[in-house]
Structure formats: C-alpha cells, structure tokens
Amino acid sequence: MRILLTTLGSRGDVEPFLRLAHALQRRAHEVRVIAPDDVDAEAEGLDVVGLGLRVEDLAVAQDVRQAMRVFRERIKPAMSRALASVVAEAMRWQPDVIVSHPKLLTVPAVASRLEIPHVLVELTPVVTATGAFPAAGTTTRDLGPTLNRMTYRLVALSARMFRDDVAMAARRLGLGRAPALPAPARTLVPISPALLPRPDDWPPHTSLTGDWGAAGTPIRVDDELETFLADDAPFVYAGFGSMTGGDAAVRGAAIVESARRRGLRVLVSTGWGGLAVPARAGGDDVLVRRAVPHDAVLPGAQVAVHHGGAGTVHAATRAGAPSVVVPFLADQPFWADRLHRAGLAGRPLPRNGLTTKNVGNALDDAAGRRGAVADAAAVMSAERGVEAAAAIIESL
Predict the structure, then answer these.
(1) Quick one: 118 and 169 in the same domain?
(2) Sign of the C-alpha dihedral, residues 348, 351, 355, 356?
C-alpha cells in the first residue's frame, strides 16, 4: 500500500506519526510523511515532505491580546498554506490511504476526490464525543454525560475558522461548492488505557490502540549528556517543551533549588522558552539543554517536572518516572487531572506560581508514587499500540 501520513504541530503531534511510519515501513508499505519543516528527515530515515512552515516560528506567548494578534498575522496564513500544501502533495503522490492529524482539515476533501479511505489520529480526546468526560482543553470538571458530550461540539466549532480553506480545496478538486465530505473510515487513539480507559459510549470505529511507545532504535546523545546519565547520582528532569511566556528563570530557579535541597541533580530542557536556569542557580549538579530525547533520559529520572502534553505524559509514565505537572494551556490541564485521578501524580502546580516550597512538596509527593507509576509502566510495556494501528490501517 501507498500510505500517506500527515501531521501538524509540535513534538507531541509529530513523533507518534514518525513511529507509525517506521512500523508501516517494517511491514513493507510505501510510506510518505507530510510534516512541519522542523522534522529532520535524514535523521528519521523516512520519506518526509515539509509543509513549508516551522511550528516553532508560530509559538505564541500566553498573553491573550498578543496571541490574537499572532494568530491573525502569522498562524492563520501559515495554516492556510499548510492546508493547501497537503492537498497538492496528496494529489501528486496518489496514496491508497491517508492517515491524518485532526488539524489538517482538507484531508477529507482529498480522500473524497481520490475515492480512498482516510484515518483520523486523535492524539488527545477532542474529537470523539463521550459522556464520560469533557473534551480536553475545555474544562477538567465532570459536567455530567449530556454537558460533557456538548463540549466536543464546542471544540468542533474551532474548525470554522478554516472553513474557507476547506471550501477552496473542495472547489479546486472539482467537488463543488459545498460537498458532503466523508467521515474517517477509522479513528485511532494512541493513548494507553493505563492513563485513560476506553469510554463505553465510543463508537466501534474508534480504536483505543494503546501507547505508540518508544522509537525502538538506538538514541544518540551528546557526550556530556551521556556522562550525566551514566552517573548513578539521582536526578530530576524538567522541561516544558513548546510552552512559552511568563518568567522562565523564576521557574527554573524554583525547580533547581528545590531539587538541590533534596540532594538531586537536575537535567533542564529549556525548550521554546518556557524554562530557563539563571546564572545564580547554575552549578555542577545542573545540566542544561535546549531539547533532549525523552526515551533516553526519562528512564533514569527520579521525577519528571513537565507541562503535561500528551506525548510527555506517556513518555514519563512509560519510563516509570513520577510526574509533577505544570500545565499551561490546551489539553495539558486535562492530562494533569487524569494523572492525579489515577494516583500517578499530585495536584498540578500553577505555571506562574512555582516556588521552592511548592515544587519541593510536589517532588516529595511524587517520590511516594513510584510504585503506582511502576505498575502503570508495566502495563504500558506490554502494549503494542503502533502495531495495532498499522494492522487497522492495513485492514482498509
């Protein structure tokens, strides 16, 4: 089969698709990935086509007025280009099936024109409605079955911001002005049931495949990081990924000092700017990197302090590292709440209110949850989510 994978977003949106691409290649399929230009195609060993944008260039600080301006001036035009790019590349390559991130709203139009199935990958619960819990990114309160289901309609309304792009794609594909576009043939949810059990009211075509797991290939790290990881002295990992805004240095100082008081080293991933280590907090017990491979560093961490993105939540739990979650936005409060409800993390900490005291208390709390996290990691280690996903795609 010729299988086209299309994704858009930061690390947590891209890495699952790359793992799926490798799995499909191992099963002798011809695979192409359309992804942001941030992806290093050569390093991944995949056929990757860029969308013509770098997601990091579109990062928005958590200030509402600034976010609205950046959306109008940068994000909306970039998204329009990406939606058109997916259509053009898919029509050139002529796949047998398309597997897509929900953000790429023009994929159903392409699938209709080519008369092929398309598969949706729901990385976090925002598409498939359920009465069991509200859509991620809306509220963490259980509103009851009826209102919980209504929150998914609210999320779906966000697609209207790009309805002109979808309509233009449909016209260019010869589908008419307002065609009835096909629903996904299947929806794949790469979430571990150890973190989120499958709701009873999900439809049969939605599959909770389980965690899509680690890369399964050797991971290269630089010499200094390798030496840091080889040291037997315990350490805390801290990283907020693609998050930005607020006083990053205050956050970094609070984390470093609270860990230091407990005799723990700190590995800091500064990411896109949400975390920094001021000079006064540095030392031989602190190693700072802009980014690190989670699958290489988290298995050795005593605790992982992170923002609560779906990918990081799975990586930390899979590695057996208890989490201290500092959610910023979107689905992160949802995952912070799920980990807390499952007994795998304490209550989340405020992103603009980190102190040596509350971080220290959270580190102590996390240390007491190692047994529960180890049990969840054992469950996840037996999951073969990416292979289950590949088999479902083949069945189409």
Answers:
(1) yes
(2) positive
